[in-house]
């Protein structure tokens, strides 16, 4: 590889470096290849390591790079397209749901979740944890918060926790008539537990999809799904359900 020195440019130096690095990724590296260490890259491009880190962080945010524990910084594969339908009319766990139940506990949610559910702060809810795989890769985790009022007949369920308890809670939830839902998407940072599950570093960029489910004139459940921002891109259409496409060029139907 040749040496490229940065000249005076109007945009921030790290932004120009990001462009130069992106071109190098296209021409000199293959998917999964490990990049040289920061000291060597900084020397090659004639920049401070702080500037290099800013450029690398931006490329990670854009899905070009992945930072992996015990491996280093590697070239990321194309993002997996996640088509999020805008006209869904099913409860979580209904037929065709791609999520897998992992666990279920009863605990008090955060103040923000309690406010969204319109329940008193400190009131325990059922928290169902689910995961989503694609071709053997974990691409998202979900916390589904369900107030006790939404599943009043759970007293007859023997399983105290685990996947069986989670499935039982979802079956009870589906007894309600779903009146509608709304969804919000924002960029966030991976919390420690999500980062561990998703094999990312804490603070890595993630896509947060929050969905409220309405029944009986109230919020009957609240889902917070965390997608890997480096491997997933969200597309929106009118088809029901959430579908993962591995062809990055395929459009949501």
Explain this structure:
This protein is α+β, with helices and mostly antiparallel strands and 253 residues long. It has six helices and eleven strands. It has helices at residues 13-28, 38-45, 49-61, 111-117, 162-173, 192-197, and strands spanning 65-68, 72-75, 80-85, 100-107, 125-134, 137-147, 180-189, 205-215, 218-228, 232-237, 242-245. The strands form three sheets. Strands 4-5-6-9-8-7 form a six-stranded antiparallel β-sheet. It has a three-stranded mixed β-sheet with strand order 10-3-11, with no helix packed on it. A two-stranded antiparallel sheet has the order 1-2. α2 (38-45) packs across α3 (49-61). The radius of gyration is 22 Å and the shape is elongated. The two termini are 43 Å apart. 27% of the residues are buried. The model is unreliable at 239-253 (pLDDT under 50).
What is the strand and helix layout of this fold?
Elements: H1 13-28, H2 38-45, H3 49-61, E1 65-68, E2 72-75, E3 80-85, E4 100-107, H4 111-117, E5 125-134, E6 137-147, H5 162-173, E7 180-189, H6 192-197, E8 205-215, E9 218-228, E10 232-237, E11 242-245
Parallel strand pairs: 3-10
Antiparallel strand pairs: 1-2, 3-11, 4-5, 5-6, 6-9, 7-8, 8-9
Helix pairs in contact: 1-3, 2-3
């Amino acid at each position: 590889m040749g040496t490229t020195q940065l000249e005076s440019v109007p945009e921030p130096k790290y932004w120009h470096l990001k462009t130069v690095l992106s071109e190098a990724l296209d021409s000199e590296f293959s998917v999964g290849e490990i990049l040289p260490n920061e000291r060597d890259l900084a020397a090659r491009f004639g920049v401070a390591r702080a500037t290099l880190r800013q450029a690398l962080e931006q490329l990670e945010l854009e899905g070009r790079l992945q930072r992996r524990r015990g491996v280093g910084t590697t070239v990321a594969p194309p993002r997996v397209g996640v088509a999020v339908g805008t006209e869904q009319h099913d409860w979580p766990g209904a037929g065709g749901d791609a999520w897998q139940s992992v666990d279920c506990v009863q605990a008090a949610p955060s103040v923000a979740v309690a406010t969204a559910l319109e329940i008193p702060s400190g009131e325990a809810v059922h928290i169902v944890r689910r995961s989503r795989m694609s071709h053997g890769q974990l691409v998202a985790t979900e916390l589904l918060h369900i107030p006790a009022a939404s599943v009043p007949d759970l007293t007859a369920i023997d399983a105290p926790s685990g996947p069986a308890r989670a499935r039982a809670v979802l079956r009870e939830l589906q007894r309600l008539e779903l009146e509608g839902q709304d969804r919000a998407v924002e960029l966030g940072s991976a919390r420690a537990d999500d980062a561990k599950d998703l094999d990312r570093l804490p603070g890595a960029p993630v896509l947060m999809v929050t969905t409220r489910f309405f029944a009986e004139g109230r919020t009957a459940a609240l889902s917070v799904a965390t997608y890997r921002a480096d491997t997933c891109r969200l597309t929106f259409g009118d088809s029901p359900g959430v579908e993962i496409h591995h062809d990055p060029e395929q459009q949501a139907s």
